[in-house]
Amino acid sequence: MAGKMKKTDPRQHGYEFGGPFGAAAITFGLPILCYVLTFGCNDVTGCPAPSLLHPKSLSLEQLKAEVGWPEDGIWGLASWKATFGVLGYYAFNALLYRMLPATEIEGTELRSGGRLKYRFNSFASIVTTLVLVLSGTIAQGADFPLWTFIADNYVQILTANILIAYFLATFVYVRSFSVKPGNPERRELAAGGCTGNMIYDFYMGRELNPRVTLPFIGEVDIKSYMELRPGLLGWIILNGAFVAKQYRNYGWVSDSIVFIALAQAFYVLDSQYMEPAILTTMDITTDGFGFMLSFGDLVWVPFIYSQQTRYLSTHPVVLGPLGISGVTALLAIGFYIFRASNKQKNAFRSNPTDPAVAHIKYMETKTGSRLMISGWWGVARHINYLGDWLQSFPYSMPTGFAGYTILAAGTGAEGAVRMRDGREVVQGPAKYWGMLFTYFYVVYFAVLLIHRDRRDDEKCARKYGEDWEKYKKIVRYRIVPGIY
After folding, report:
1. What are the distances in angstroms from CA 387 to CA 390, 394, 440, 475?
2. Which residue windows are transmembrane per the record (predicted)?
3. What is the pTM of this model?
4. Nearest CA-CA partner of 300 in 36, 33, 68, 28
């Protein structure tokens, strides 16, 4: 049966992400976007760079000087030092995966029959790492070598992770052609990633559950490992580096950057603690592992999701007790909706007779599946997405009406915040324009969740047929009750 899935008709399954053209644009365009965000909002001249505010007189040479473009050009975007540092980080994560106690849990049933076992210990791994990092910070403060290494090599670290993402996507793509029908390892191809179009399949991922056996480490499920470990931990570590950088810049730390760093750390730790819940997500059950997930896990999440603390490390914002209370309340509401709805879904799927979900009404489909039509999931078909999206606002709101310009020491600008080295940071004409960078996450996340909802709707329509149409008449709203 697995062999029959080597190639699917895109007209039957349907191209996603704009088909081959869209996949190619994303595959080669997202790394460029990461560099645009990195250089456009910088700690050299401003956020955005001053020349970007005057496009009519824009000079490429002037812009390069303003954004801190490497002296040796494009080759300066990478370095052996940063690359080896990043590889060491990945190796350290792999050692913790092997050495720390773990639990083994079976995944959902495969199309070809049987279930795969997953080894989970990411929560213990991340806590161990954070304890080591905290110890180093207590001993050496903001000058802890990890923090200064990240600050001094940020662009090169970004490049190293981009290259690893491309390498990993290429490796699993080539290796997927060795999947044979009826193989004892239960290797299986993803229905949506075997269209026969190379760039599209490279992006979507041909193999559903690629695994590799490494010396000493043992077998590693690449998809679940990358989904939960290096990128999410990297998100917390990058935030920590920017908190330390703000202290080195000003000699104090703002409540806004502390709030974001702690809130996002809580989000990551919660996902690590609930690690087995990943087994029922679309990423694991449906999508192959290709460039979409490798780049998303290793580059997009840690480097794009930490843009707010990166901004605040150069332009601190003080919220005060009232501001902190407001963003905390919004975060709590979003988290409650997200966690309570997911908990209810997982409990119902695991044991519908559980007293916690025994009251839930459901609709039974011809496939034998049960679709909840009351409780959280009777309110909207993806009510958890609403909670997830609401949490994105408190990540960006502490940056305020973002935008700043960095002036030379001794300028004496009114209302400037002065760094330890004398440089002055003012908002000036950059005010509001910086929101393109710090609020990018909110807009992107909304697009992501809406697109995921559409993808899930198409998948369920194929799976349940007319039963899905009946279900949608009962649970009418997609994400936002009463609106969408």
Report:
1. 5, 12, 18, 18
2. 21-40, 74-97, 118-142, 154-174, 250-269, 289-305, 317-338, 432-450
3. 0.90
4. 33
